[in-house]
Design brief:
alpha+beta, six-stranded antiparallel beta sheet, about 25% strand, flat
Length: about 750
């Protein structure tokens, strides 16, 4: 297919999706209006729908427009709301249709985009943020629109000490309408913001922030319109299916940063750190993307890898972040090669991953961008301690949120503007300057007049005349954006670590369940009559692939013996718990004494009702010692293997479907007579499947191998020998059961483990 046709098809699918979404919103609005009419006029729903259609035809309105009017009539006054700078008024009908479209959006992010584009943008707004209330008073970003990826990452998580306008809206249970720069995302000197609490059933569920690019007249109509749309946002946040998105993937977070950042992963082979991902800035600093075959530290960081490896090791040992102001190259760096790393930070992001962030002097583009950013957020100051004035550069007034005609504050008078928790840091800074006569720096949380908080780095030097400090000179730098990014990264890593911890718990639980139900090694067991049985379970090569294989050998009250194997599709805790449920169900059903085909049909119904959509293959067999017959049924499982008189052959199974595929399926049965000396093998696909060949080849190889080992009369030796040949290479788990009919007078093997068969 050509690129052009692919683009055309993509555009067609996008258009079709938009039409489907629009029709879904239309139907929701009509359904709401139908319900209103049915309640008001005491009509059946069908009659109310017909009445709505007739009214629309009589008035000449589209059905959805009339439906919007009906819903608005009961939801609140149908004001015609003026949109700022718009040539025509914005009718409440449009707002109602926008609300309906948002209510059927597939997620909070899509709902936010719908609310912005359909309702808020015509009112002049250019951004919408929706945060959900989280643990301990914090906020987590659930959806946004009109917002860049970097800014969204920086504000993804807000601690309990939220910016004052957000906290005021939540605590005061009322909207906050703001002009100017309130220290909120995207705010500029002329921006306007509306902060609204989102509540459902009297309880807070979150907070919304609506942004405008310039000044706005927050008149009553505009306030009602925004508040109405945010009522919809509250309902969307409160939906059970509106779970907040997980933290962004680590690669996405790194790609949103403008400074170099790489993700390191511990090599499974050597244990040394290797490069897993580098963002654009890091790739530029490293001289371009690395070759896939060599992502080692020496290859990525040829001149500083030893020093970096030591930082990584300290993080691994202490589980605490490490920082270095500068990592100089161990030897001379050739022209164009990566030079010193400045302000290096190494953080742990899981059991086997590390994040490395740094500034590099090797990339003039990055350095230039940083220099411009510093000029925009750096201000100079000079204080006199001998009776003179304090002088600020113009940028300092903006950093501290003060008007240009206000008197600048001396560094010694900043205590009233500094967050109480940073008072000690300010004291130490001043003590170093005035008592130790040495330069110093500190990052202080500064309280602005509007109640918001900024992180300001203070770097100062004392002015000396002899041993007397006569003044202080230095710079103020607004580092709030950097701190927000660090908070966002920390929250992301905490989330990822929590997810990994939960995944590890689930994995360990799955592993314990699997090992408890299906032991890896079992000794020989003699069963009633003339059977000897040995079974083995070989877990997947990768532990995270713990799967749903099971086996069972169970003497029944009537003297028969149940022999079974099965395999549920998939891996993980859900698969293992499904396996446990099926195995236990099969055991219980077997005590009814019913034949295998009937047991398999019941097991199929159990799978359909409790398997959560899973399917499974299985063999259920009943051996009767009285006449040495095996009656068995198969649900899409591999054929049984019979070893007799030194030869091996596959027993053709009934062509029946998997468990959990269709309801009320009738399974067939096979009857196989066994003789003294026969050995029967039941197994799962991990024993025979190979990645690059058909199943038939694997089964033929199993037949050949079993014949070669036919002289091993002990079932234990046979199962160990078959597993030792490693017939399969798909890294899937394997269950294998060998059942041998003893010859007359053949001695029973000593029982090694009384709990051989679980």
């Amino acid at each position: 297919m050509s690129d052009g046709s692919a683009e055309t098809r993509f555009a067609g699918l996008a258009a079709e999706n938009r039409l489907l979404r629009a029709e879904l919103a239309r139907r929701r609005l009509i359904d709401l209006a139908t319900g209103v009419l049915a309640a008001q006029q005491g009509l059946p729903t069908a009659d109310a729908a017909e009445h709505l259609t007739a009214l629309a035809a009589a008035t000449g309105l589209a059905v959805e427009d009339l439906a919007a009017d009906v819903v608005n009539a009961v939801a609140g006054p149908g004001d015609v709301l003026p949109a700022p700078d718009a040539p025509s008024p914005l009718p409440a009908r449009r707002l109602r249709r926008t609300a309906a479209a948002a209510e059927v959006a597939p997620g909070v992010g899509e709902a936010a985009r719908t609310l912005l584009e359909g309702g808020l943008a015509p009112l002049g707004a250019d951004s919408l943020w929706l945060w959900r209330c989280a643990d301990a008073g914090s906020l987590r970003l659930a959806g946004h629109a009109g917002v860049g990826a970097v800014e969204a990452a920086a504000w993804r998580s807000i601690p309990p000490a939220a910016p004052a306008p957000l906290r005021a809206a939540l605590d005061g249970n009322g909207p906050v309408w703001l002009d100017g720069d309130p220290g909120l995302p995207g705010a500029g000197p002329a921006a306007a913001r509306a902060v609204l609490p989102l509540r459902r059933r009297g309880a807070p569920v979150g907070v919304a922030l609506v942004g405008w690019p310039g000044p706005v007249d927050f008149g009553p109509p505009l306030r009602r319109a925004v508040a109405g749309l945010m009522d919809v946002a509250a309902a969307i946040l409160d939906r059970p299916d509106a779970d907040e998105p997980g933290a962004p993937a680590l690669a996405d977070v790194l790609d949103a940063l403008v400074t170099p950042a790489v993700l390191l992963r511990t090599s499974a082979h050597s244990g040394a750190p290797v490069l897993e991902h580098a963002n654009e800035a890091a790739a530029a600093a490293l001289g371009g993307p690395l070759a896939p075959g060599d992502r080692s530290l020496p290859r990525a960081f040829p001149h500083v890898h030893d020093e970096l490896a030591r930082l990584v090791l300290r993080v691994r040992l202490t589980r605490r972040p490490q920082h270095a102001a500068r990592l100089p190259p161990a030897g001379p760096a050739p022209g164009g090669a990566l030079g010193p790393l400045l302000d290096v930070r190494v953080l742990s992001v899981g059991a086997d991953r590390m994040l490395v962030l740094w500034h590099s002097v090797g990339d003039p583009g990055i350095a230039a961008a940083r220099a411009v950013a510093r000029l925009q957020s750096v201000a100079t100051f000079q204080d006199s301690l001998s009776g003179g004035d304090t002088v600020w550069s113009e940028q300092a007034y903006g950093i501290f949120g003060m008007a240009r005609d206000e008197a600048p504050l001396p560094l010694l008078a900043l205590r009233g503007r500094v967050h109480p928790e940073d008072g000690e840091a300010l004291t130490e800074l001043l003590r170093t300057l005035t008592e130790r006569h040495s330069g110093a720096q500190a990052v202080l949380r500064t309280l602005l007049p509007d109640g918001s908080v900024r992180h300001v780095r203070v770097a100062a030097e004392p002015l000396l005349e002899g041993d007397t400090v006569t003044g202080l000179v230095g710079v103020y730098q607004d580092v709030s954006a950097t701190r927000r990014t660090e908070v966002a990264l920390t929250a992301t890593f905490e989330h990822l670590n929590a997810v990994r911890s939960q995944a590890e718990i689930r994995h360990q639980l799955a592993l314990q369940l699997q090992r408890a139900i299906v032991p890896e090694v079992t000794a020989l067991r003699e069963l009633p009559g003339d059977l000897s049985v040995a079974a083995r379970y070989r877990p997947a090569a990768e532990e995270y692939q713990v799967g749903g294989d099971w086996y069972d050998v169970l003497p029944l009250p009537g003297g028969k013996v149940l022999v079974a194997v099965g395999d549920i599709a998939g891996h993980g805790i859900d698969t293992v718990t499904g396996m446990v449920a099926l195995r236990n169900a099969q055991r219980a059903l077997a005590f009814t004494g019913r034949p295998p085909a009937e047991l398999m049909g019941w097991l199929n119904d159990v799978t359909l009702r409790t398997g959560g959509g899973s399917t499974a293959t299985a063999v259920c067999a009943l051996y009767d010692p009285g006449d040495r017959t095996l009656v068995w049924s198969s649900a899409g499982h591999l054929p049984l293997l019979l070893v007799r008189d030194g030869r091996a052959r596959l027993l053709e199974p009934p062509q029946d479907i998997l468990l959990g595929a269709v309801p009320s399926y009738a399974y067939a049965e096979r009857r196989t007579g066994l003789r003294p000396g026969d050995t029967l093998l039941l197994y799962t696909d991990g024993l025979v499947e190979r990645r690059h060949e058909g199943l038939g080849q694997g089964l033929a190889r199993l037949v050949t191998t079993a014949e070669r080992m036919a002289g091993l009369e002990s079932p234990e030796l046979l199962v160990d020998g078959l597993l030792g040949t490693a017939l399969g290479d798909t890294d899937d788990d394997t269950s294998l059961v060998a059942v041998r009919v003893r010859r007359p007078g053949e001695a029973e093997a000593p029982e090694v483990n009384s709990a051989v068969v679980p």
